[in-house]
Amino acid sequence: MPRQATQDIETRIAALLKRCDLSVTDSRRKILQLFLEQPGALAHGDIERKAGEKFDRVTVYRTLQTFVEKGIIHTIPTADNSIRYALCKDECSGGHHHDHHIHFVCSQCDNTYCLDDVVTPDIKLPKGYQAEHVEVVVEGVCKNCKA
Amino acid sequence: MPRQATQDIETRIAALLKRCDLSVTDSRRKILQLFLEQPGALAHGDIERKAGEKFDRVTVYRTLQTFVEKGIIHTIPTADNSIRYALCKDECSGGHHHDHHIHFVCSQCDNTYCLDDVVTPDIKLPKGYQAEHVEVVVEGVCKNCKA
DNA sequence: TATGAAAAGGCAACATAGTTGCAAAATCTA
DNA sequence: TAGATTTTGCAACTATGTTGCCTTTTCATA
Fold first, then answer.
1. Distance from CA of A129 to the nearest CA of B (A)
2. Which of A17, A136, B108, B133 is least surrounded by CB atoms within 10 angstroms?
3. Could you give the CA distance from residue A75 to residue A68 in angstroms, rounded to a whole number?
């Protein structure tokens, strides 16, 4: 890997953490890098497996929790009861998430993607119900698996 | 409680179980009754608390699993990683769920409802993605809590 | 309504997931 | 670079979910 590129990512990570008033630590750098390195979402298990050799389980939990609070990542509910995390777009900040995009879970490769260009639809609710947040998860076959 | 009504529910429960090729046992009767008695969805924890004194934890797990397989109940994904279960409408059978309705989670009372009259919208996906199933969960304030 | 095969339940033990308190280590401010 | 503050690691614990095996219950049929 060219040194320049590495430097860029490192700088970008540190800047993002500082912008969120978080001190720059090894575990945060590493976990953030995992998210930046790949397009889809990560389950807690994935992260623990990829970062767990270097860091304690508890640290992973706490780091993810902090990232969610700071609006760096958001959670994606899935049917199999395994929460997944994905990077938020830049507009999210201070726990105030603006993620009105939908999520896509591939039934073949099991990857989860944020489809940032697909906005959650307006849902007409029965009288008396008041919507605050709409979560849409589509299951199907993703771009890569649809050979 | 009038004897007639009790008899009716018992009969209804036994009939439903038999229709699904399930033998009629105490735990299945009890757990099914919990679902029939109340409008919203139940988390595993709720069921274990309400039925757990009489039945083993493992039995509760296996019963719920069986009910899902047979299309008696379906699962509802939520953001807090606690799967909830709700009765299917009659059309569901043999693991072949037809639940195209949306789900509503109240942020105040934390109850979950199936809004059977609200159909999941069509979602326009980017090129290459193929939808198989769409899950919509709306969070907000429910009928009863909106004083 | 008695009986035996098949299904379901209970128990124990285990595996995984998530939480809490506290002392040690790293980070940041100045 | 020193000290206050934050973060981490460890240990212990609770909660959640699974598996194997033996006992009990259910149900079809005689």
1. 5
2. B108
3. 8
